[in-house]
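Q: I have 486 residues here and want to know how they pack in 3D. Can you give me a structure?
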Amino acid sequence: MKNIKESIFKTAVNQIISNKTLRGLAVKQLDKYLYSSLMEMGRHQLEQEKLDQYAFMSSIVDQVRYNLDKGFIKPKVLKKMAKVFVGDSYTPDRHKKLSPEKEAYNKKHGDYPPQFLVLSPGKGCNLHCTGCYASADSAIAEKLDFETSRRIVREAHDIFGSRFMTISGGEPFLYKSNGKTLLDLFEEFNDMFFLVYTNGTLLTKELADRLGELGNVTPAISVEGWEEQTDQRRGKGVYHRIMKAMENLRNAGVPFGISLTATSQNVEILLDDNFYDYFFKELGVSYMWQFQLMPIGRGKDVVDLMVTPEQRVKLYKQWVHLLEEKHYPIADFWNSSSLSSGCIAYGRWNGYFYIDWNGNIMPCVFVPYHVDNIKDLYAQGKTLEDALQSKMFKNGRKWQKDYGFENPNHRGNILMPCSIRDHYENFKNNILTPDAKGEDEEAEAVLHDPEYERMMIDFDKRLQKLTESIFKEKYLAKELVQNEKQ
């Protein structure tokens, strides 16, 4: 029965991509499969978590169909995506037998490897955005050499069995080393799919066409709201350059998304449905990632730009509305943790970790502290898997499990999933280790700033008061009802 269902699933995916006449029927078949599979699978998840995950995956299918019908995406690119995400290398169920690489890792370490990693091979950027987490700058030449970047991707592929990777920066499309660019990596690892966070200003017609030929890349373009907000944070004229980049990608048939930093100054725009209608229906966006400004990097100097706990709750309610009623595939890195059963950092199973342009290995893009450096590990004859064995990483994974990852009977508040932003005091006392170093001077400085610590702890306490009742009513209450039915 299981093989029959999976066959129906793959057939439906192929029909959605290739057969416009049968596309509507195939979407319905796929939707039924997604619902039944997710609801049957998640023995370690709350009922509402599974419903949220179904709604998100269903919304992706809806938006892909919309963009296919509009001619915004080429079937070739979608076939490549389907090969990665529908194949045996990807499953949210750890109790299904996985790829040989993942099973070998589990046998060696007693747990499965992360699903992906974020690699920032270069810090250089042609913009200078206010509050940039990376403190990126065009004058900065810090970067990993191409062979080191290539080895990282190869080991993620061969050791973790990963077929998906996120590339960030700096501006990734500025990266060049030994005459090589990221396009050389994308071409070599053509059985992987890459999501690239980019400011969009370098996405010319020629580059968009090349990405369409490769078929294994989706750019996530950074915006801040409408033209006024985007140009205010990113520079005059950037919004129009982004619009041109999106046009180039549509013409090349490359699926793309947008990445947005929520701040206290643009939150009202993000509470307006018109903003999402425009980007999803008019511009052909396939997905949206939202990141609330985290006070690290240059962000520590603009703490007043952080969304308040009250605004964060409003954004959560807006996300629920957009997902359940508008069916837009949107994920908020903090508010949408039900999609991933909590924090995905520290290299946990089905999660990720982060390597920057200096080779520093960090739990998360927003946890700017490291114990190991990939260049040092390589010099010692070690590999990428050794990067996950530091005490800090293990502390983080222990906290995730103690907080309820894969344990619905002891689940912490899922609206407060972040180990550093939402549990700062615990992060400093129980996760961060004495040998951990800040990624930069700013990250190191805030560890010794009592005012910063008070601000973060106060934020957490206020957020706890605002979200605890929502968590209990939306997630735990439904679980009690479900248990009574059983």
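Q: Anything worth noting?
A: Confidence is low (pLDDT under 50) at residues 88-95. Residues 225 and 269 are 7 Å apart (CA to CA).
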